[in-house]
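Design job #97: recover the sequence.
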């Protein structure tokens, strides 16, 4: 099984929308919709068309066009080249080969919610690295490496797609932006410069410019995404998380820690090491794509057949997956009310905390936020400082904070995080470290009440629990709605009781009926037995 080789003769695709027959919608991005279509004049060959709304997209149209022209000159079997592009009203249509497996993001979200196996990840990442290495050697950055931009076809070929945000380093260095990691003229980061969760810290802070190594960071995040089924911090809303990561407050709900705690998959040392090298805070220490390809993690990589068997086999079609995901998106928005969380009005459920960045936690195989500790008026900050050792354990070896210049490197267990995220600062204040390790979060609250924590307040806890209950009720409603949308039936407790009462009533009715009949029969018998004597008497 082999993917299409470089140097394949290019076909001339028509540049008018009438030549294409839309078959189905197969994806939707931030400002684009992706269709499966047929190119009628070309033997109805199946293609994918990405229709980018130029009014919604903040990307500069000339840049996109220039970039797609540049990219059409690239040729590599792991890079998805567009067949052609043209405008249709206020949309840019990018016609490209149809990759029947769709993106790795759509594959994991539909069929591998907890991530792919390490063997499959190795194959996907190796193929992606081939593309990245080629791009970098050609002097291009991709700038939007993520599972959503890695596509697979029916024979397991993996291709890196979507150069909408990528930029030629040559163009940048000769233009107004800089790519040099040492440049003094910073790259201006806008919402279209990649996707926040996958962005390297130096790109977010934008004070050192964008280099090839930022693609390597995103590659490391993509590895985590394939391993866990989602990128780190993905419970935060994408655009807001970017802002929050830089200047504002970061929220740390329990769910993230619970999921971390509950299912810890075992990953090999080689895999962890490879990802850790990509997620080094210092871009200069991250390996190049070429060097990464030589990493031991990729040594005994299996062939594409393995992907076909273990990923594509039995997978619903890309259009089917999109249909389901659309229903789910429209039906429910279960989880945090982001507006509330972010808004100054504030949610009752979470406490906000400032972060200065994040560190890769090799044990948890996750990114851990690095909380700032300088904010003196921040009660939670106080908690970190005062209770750092007991309430919030610092990663082994980091207890002096030396390995963690931005603040404490936190890996919050379930109970602790629920204390931190409670309103009114449950568990705030000084913890003198006298509580045993076996104590639960609740016990700690009780312990704090006995003198250590003067801020403990039962009313606050009740308030917190009430808010939590309300949130659970809301989620219950949304899930019920979603199930009914999908044709399922959910019977709530009240209806269940009504049904039970009705059943009992019917049973009672039935019993009464039976009793009545028996009584009637008895009466008849009585009449029969007493009948003759009566007759005799009458006679
Ligand atoms: N060439 C293609 N062949 C098959 N499916 C595709 C193709 N291009 C995109 N898709 C499908 O469409 C979905 C959306 O693609 P798109 O590039 O808009 O998404 P995205 O990269 O996740 O979003 P964005 O780039 O806007 O953040 C993909 O997840 C993929 O499943």
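Job complete. Output follows.
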């Amino acid at each position: 099984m082999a993917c299409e080789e470089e140097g394949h003769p290019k076909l001339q695709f028509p540049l008018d929308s009438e030549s294409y027959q839309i078959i189905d919608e197969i994806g939707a991005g931030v400002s684009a919709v992706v269709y499966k279509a047929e190119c009628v004049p070309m033997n109805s060959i199946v293609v994918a068309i990405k229709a980018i709304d130029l009014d919604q997209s903040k990307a500069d149209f000339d840049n996109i066009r220039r970039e797609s022209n540049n990219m059409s000159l690239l040729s590599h079997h792991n890079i998805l080249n567009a067949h052609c592009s043209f405008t249709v009203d206020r949309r840019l249509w990018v016609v490209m080969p149809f990759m029947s497996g769709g993106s790795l993001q759509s594959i994991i979200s539909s069929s591998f919610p907890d991530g792919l196996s390490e063997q499959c990840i190795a194959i996907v990442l190796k193929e992606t690295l081939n593309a990245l290495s080629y791009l970098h050697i050609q002097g291009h950055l991709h700038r939007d490496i993520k599972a959503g931009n890695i596509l697979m076809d029916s024979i397991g070929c993996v291709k890196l797609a979507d150069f909408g945000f990528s930029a030629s380093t040559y163009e940048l260095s000769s233009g107004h932006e800089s790519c040099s990691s040492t440049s003094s003229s910073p790259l201006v980061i806008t919402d279209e410069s990649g996707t926040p969760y996958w962005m390297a810290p130096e790109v977010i802070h934008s004070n050192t410019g964008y280099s090839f190594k930022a693609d390597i960071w995103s590659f490391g995040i993509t590895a985590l995404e394939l391993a866990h089924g989602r990128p780190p911090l993905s419970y935060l809303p994408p655009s807001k998380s970017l802002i929050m990561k830089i200047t504002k407050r970061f929220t740390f709900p329990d769910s993230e820690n619970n999921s971390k705690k509950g299912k810890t998959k075992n990953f090999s040392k080689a895999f962890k090491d490879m990802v850790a090298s990509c997620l080094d805070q210092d871009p200069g220490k991250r390996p190049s794509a070429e060097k990464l390809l030589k990493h031991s993690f990729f040594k005994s990589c299996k062939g594409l057949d393995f992907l076909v068997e273990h990923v594509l086999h039995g997978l619903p079609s890309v259009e089917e997956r999109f249909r389901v995901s659309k229903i789910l998106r429209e039906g429910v928005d279960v989880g945090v009310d982001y507006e509330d969380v972010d808004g100054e009005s504030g949610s009752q459920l979470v406490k906000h905390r400032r972060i200065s960045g994040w560190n890769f936690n090799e044990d948890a195989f996750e990114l851990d936020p690095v909380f700032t500790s300088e904010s003196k008026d921040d009660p939670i900050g106080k908690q970190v400082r005062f209770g750092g050792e007991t309430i919030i354990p610092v990663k082994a070896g980091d207890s002096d904070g030396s390995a963690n210049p931005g603040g404490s490197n936190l890996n919050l267990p379930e109970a602790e995080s629920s204390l931190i995220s409670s309103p009114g600062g449950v568990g705030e204040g000084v913890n003198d470290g006298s509580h045993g390790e076996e104590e639960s979060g609740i016990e700690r609250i009780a312990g704090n009440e006995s003198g250590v924590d003067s801020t403990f307040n039962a009313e606050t806890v009740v308030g917190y629990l009430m808010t939590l209950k309300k949130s659970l009720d809301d989620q219950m409603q949304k899930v019920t709605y979603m199930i009914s949308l999908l044709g399922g039936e959910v019977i709530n407790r009240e209806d269940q009781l009504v049904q039970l009462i009705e059943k009992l009533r019917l049973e009672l009715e039935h019993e009464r009926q039976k009793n009545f009949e028996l009584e009637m029969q008895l009466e008849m018998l009585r009449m029969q037995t007493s009948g003759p004597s009566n007759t005799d008497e009458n006679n």
